[in-house]
Design goal:
The protein is mainly alpha-helical. Helix content is 56%, strand content 8%. The protein has helices at residues 2-19, 24-37, 45-65, 104-122, 125-131, 137-160, and strands spanning 68-72, 78-84, 87-89. A 3-stranded antiparallel beta sheet has the order 1-2-3, with no helix packed on it. A hairpin with a 5-residue loop joins strand 1 (68-72) and strand 2. Helix 1 (2-19) packs across helix 6 (137-160), helix 3 runs antiparallel to helix 4 and helix 4 runs antiparallel to helix 6 (137-160). It starts with a helix and ends in a 24-residue tail after the last helix.
Length: 184
Amino acid sequence: MSSKSSMRQATLTGFGNLVKLLPTGTVFAFQFLNPVLTNNGQCHVINKYLSAVLIATCGVSCCFASFTDSYTDGEGNTNYGIATTKGLWPNSSKQDLSTYKLRFGDFVHAFFSLVVFAVVALLDPNSVECFYPSFESAQKVLLMAMPPVIGAVSGSVFVLFPNNRHGIGYPCSQRSTTPPSTSA
């Protein structure tokens, strides 16, 4: 029973990490600006360029956010930084932040963050109508099947590489000055 329970807990944790995968501000900005820039799917050439710039910018933002983290200093202030090979940068406190070093899992998260955002962005109805309006109904079935598959793969990866970072654009959590574990 305990292995069944731990497997269920690992699955739920993986799905929870999938929700945390994309920075909320980036997704909101995309959802807000995409209908405007795609002219609700009725694109002209300039709309395609503007929408492509939006998708690329949001994709870079998703990747960049995977390399940010936060910590609470001795005064209770939350500070943000970029993970480097030596720890968080900039370090505006006297704390040792070397345990916040860049890890392999950060690159995995950045990659899957980009993949999940690309699926969300490129399968948005306005993006579909703008960039590939002549899709046949059989191809649209493929487009509808792709998000759950990408979600399942990403969820499985996040069971293997749990996200310990609480960086810019990610949901806040109650976390003390304790640095993240050094796993993955």
